[in-house]
Amino acid sequence: MLKINFSYFLYLIFILSFASCSNDEEEGIPEPKDTINPTITCVEPINVIVNIGTTETRITYSTPVGKDNLPGAITEQTSGLASGSLFPIGTTTNTFIVTDAAGNTVSCSFDVTVATPSEDKPFSLENGVGIPTGKKWTKVENLSDEFNNGTFDDSKWHRDPATDGFGWIGRPPGLFEADNVSVSDGNLNVTTLKYQTPKVVNGKNFTHGGAIIRSKNSGGVGNYYECRMKANKTVMSSTFWLAFKENCPRKLELDIQECVGRVHSGTDTWANNFDNIYHSNIFLHKRTCNGVTNEEKRSQKGVTLTEKNYSRYFVYGCWWKSETEILFYLDGEYSFTLTPPTNYDIEGFITMAIETYDWNPIDPNSNLFETGSFDDLSTKYDWVRTWKLEDK
């Protein structure tokens, strides 16, 4: 009996010793260290323009959330303001940091810039139009309008195509009519509509109404032209450009912004983003004069936006710097430069046309013209400003 117990005792000692050695070996093996950093991506910079006198505005953005290869990562905002907060005038830098369970960290930042348009120089942010040494920008009053008087200023603008010196009544099916132009709440409004009964003018059939507004005075090279505009929501256009009268054999056109409020299945493929775009053209139109024919040439560029053209007011600007160089700006920031296909050395007239296009035809499946509100159907111009450089 003692022999059996002694053997059993030795067996237990052996088992316990083996287990102890196994635990010691396991405890002696370090766990692998997580050296992989988490990841986080911030949104693009946000630039918002508010009315003069506004001190803050509510901004909503997609809050960044970090990711990691293992569970347990935590994302915190370390500077700036949360989405949905009231952001003050100026630039607010928002920084987010993500920390994983192993203590690895990574961060990202983005700026929210809230600005008001200046009334004594072109609207310009950090990368906006500059001021050449020894010069200053001076507003050209007869080519500028704040639209704050509640009435249309007939001393500055044409709204009847029969009297504006060009005589273009619109591209069917969109007819330009002065009755569709109004001034209210600090805006110049051009309201689109569908006629209950089509109108026939000069033998052409028109089913929808728009308008064209032209400056009574002309402006030339060296000037900076800008407007603060919110597009209508329809298939019709919202534009800001310079029109030039025939200069045999040259017919020029400088489109600062040309967009639409809506595209659909019938829109030409190349224009499928024209409801969220900043797009500019410089034309030499095809013309024959005194036996000389100019074939059409154009320079164009565009920037696809993350917002619809009707989602808010945008500031569109153009510095006609020289006869061969024209710079374009969006919301006070430089966007691109275009080289004209011919020397741009004659004066043009500011034009705002709300028209129809064959490449974005009236959509028969939409009832927006019947159900849309005044705001839905109207292109709104908060202001139009023209500046010239003068010696200090």
From TrEMBL:
Keyword Signal appears in the UniProt entry: yes
GO biological process per UniProt: carbohydrate metabolic process
SUPFAM superfamilies noted in UniProt: Concanavalin A-like lectins/glucanases (SSF49899)
Domain GH16: 99-392
InterPro entries: Beta-glucanase-like, ConA-like_dom_sf, HYR_dom, SRPX-like
GO molecular function: hydrolase activity, hydrolyzing O-glycosyl compounds
HYR domain sequence ranges: 33-116
Residues in the signal sequence: 1-19
Keyword Mitochondrion: no
Domain of life: Bacteria
Annotated keywords: Repeat, Signal
Pfam families reported in the protein's UniProt record: HYR
Protein family according to the UniProt entry: Belongs to the glycosyl hydrolase 16 family.
Name used for this protein in its record: HYR domain-containing protein
Organism: Lutibacter agarilyticus
